[in-house]
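Can't attach files on this board, so I'm pasting raw text. These are the components:
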Amino acid sequence: MDAPSDGGGVFARPTGEAARQAGAVAGLRRDVVSYLQRKGQSLGDAEDAVQEAFVRFHRAGHDLSSPDARPLLFVIARNIQNDRWKAAARESRRLVAEDLATLDAGPRAIASDDRPADDRLIGRQNLASAAAVIRALPQRTREAFLMHRFENQTYRQIAARLGVSVSMVEKYIAEALRQLKISAED
Amino acid sequence: MIDRLTALFARRPETAEDWLARMGRPGVSPREQDRFAAWLEADPGNLDRYESAKALSAALEPLRGVFETDLARIRWRRREPALSRRLLLSGGLVAAAAVGGALMWPYLSAPAGRLYESAPGRISEVVLDDGSRVTLDAGSAIRVSLDDKVRRVTLERGAAYFEVAHDAGHPFQVGLMDRRVIVTGTRFVTALKNESAEVALLEGRVVVSARDASDARALTDGMALAPGDEALIRPGEPVVRHSRKDLDIATAWRKRRLIFRDVPLSEVVAAASRYSDRPLTIADPRLGALRVTAILPLDGDQSLIDRIDALLPVTVERTADGRALVRAE
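---
Top answer:
Structure tokens for the assembled complex are below.
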């Protein structure tokens, strides 16, 4: 993510799309660091937490180019920060009981668990039942979801194909995800 | 302005699934991202719920192939004019490339479209762009052109079994010598023999016509088949229809076996040659008239030649020039 060293010469600099993306990521990183600093973290600790947040972000299978990337990174970084505060508190044992209680009841008490992605993969049998759930969806819901999931069509493209609004496509996708979740929980 | 109004009236996402669907929208605004972050912070479990929903969707990846037919059907139905023109162009290119090939049935219109071929000895499955499924018998070929009001397939060689995706707006037609089999959604099998062709219907309804499906009279002039019917086609002659109780025989190759019930050995040898890596020849013409009944599996370790040798009252000799000679036992 760092800018190329001066010794690299002009050709070593990232160009075009790569440069734009690298720039966007560097900007996002700076934003999260200064957010943590505003929450009372030192610059070094904040950079450390953000580094870990990026690692966790990628391990969870997220994508930096997706619109959810920014909110997710902020929340993940803050979880990590809170966790570290608590760990430090437990270690030093200098905090009194009510201080601990205050921390636990804070806006973000516990970081979400960090299971490896494999744990969340679904087995062959569940895949079959997921396929059955998709087949059982109402026609438009099913078609919108299939185009979204397997053809990477944008909501706008799907809306044009199905002759519905973009909001309707969003509802179809949400409904399909909801049905899949219900079946996965059984 | 309209976007702002929509945002006002759109239901605020409540669940992880709602939010995942919202984040897939084009141009998510910073305000929407803030709302999403607020939702993530509102409950310690929300981040995990969101990531679980995302992981569940990601885990569907192996199903891509399962829904290939459905997607093809959607693509077909929602075809846009520009796309259709492009398909037509590519069809033209394919036709130009095929000019050197021999035209087996010159009375059919010039071949256009994509050629699907199965290798000798190999039965292959094909999913067409409209979602129809075709099983090609060994050593068979079909030419497919879907870029028109009529979905056109021509059986150029061998035999093909069809499961036609239902689409009343686009009749499906299989050219067979000088006839067309016209359907709107059904299962049937077609086969080219030396001098004739056969159509056997398993389900639905087809019409065998001398006219193209784009001709309004094609359906009224042609001969309709009911499930269980088989039509025998000879160029220039009227189509003969009869009902067949043993349709399993006509379609047995689909299940990777050949079934013969009281037929001359010459017919068995002709059929077996299509699946064998070396051509079979009957040494003595009189032997060809011998009537046999047999079920020959097409898969497994044993070669078809060994099976004929073992199951029929003949011996098969492999010659040095790569043929297989069938002799009386």
